[in-house]
Amino acid sequence: MKNIASAIMAIGAHHDDNELVAGALAKHKNAGWHVVSVVMTDGRYALGKSSEENIQLREKESLDAAALLGMECEFMHLPEGNVYPLEETRNALTNIIRKHQPAIVITHPAKDYHIDHMNTSRSVLEAVYSCESVHGRGEYPPCPKPFLYYSDAWFTPFEPDEYVDISNFINLKLDMLRCHKSQIPPDWVEDDNMVGHAKLQSRTRGIEAGIKYAEAFRFVPLHARLRVSNLLGEK
Question: β-pairing, 7-12 with 34-41?
């Protein structure tokens, strides 16, 4: 079981979602933290086609990206496009959080452009809230609630209250995104695909924060817990 003071967990709906916060994850990894990526869906859709082969391909792409950073992966294998804030989903997430005992959990904002993102956000909120309850059932015992952060959004408004300087990790972040080849149309130039978009967003957030490249987050208070800033939002 991981030490609660040295683990950070990103929970994303799809296989490439957590790579969008790879700068912050890499910064924590560089400081000695254990990094865990949780992927909710099975990735059956790739460039408009659905197949069992895609499921295996998407998981391999996630593992290839994770190897660049040195992070651990957990796959929940929910059908893509069918993430719902159900009790069994919350319980499975609660069990994963209890297993790793992260100090920080990052997930999608409650308002996002994709229904899988929004339902993942709701499920994570409930799981974080539940992980210290003695009434829940699971393989692992209750653990303290981690601090919860929403990650930046695409295509919808997002108001951050914390920025992380990822200037030293931008190239690693982009290389991790490039591992997801099934999500990159071969005839698109990089400026127009998700790699170029992620670089532009990181630069835009960096300008807002007065640095080269940044990732933006919003803290989610649970029972008005005080924030304990370390690397994410380090003061």
Answer: parallel
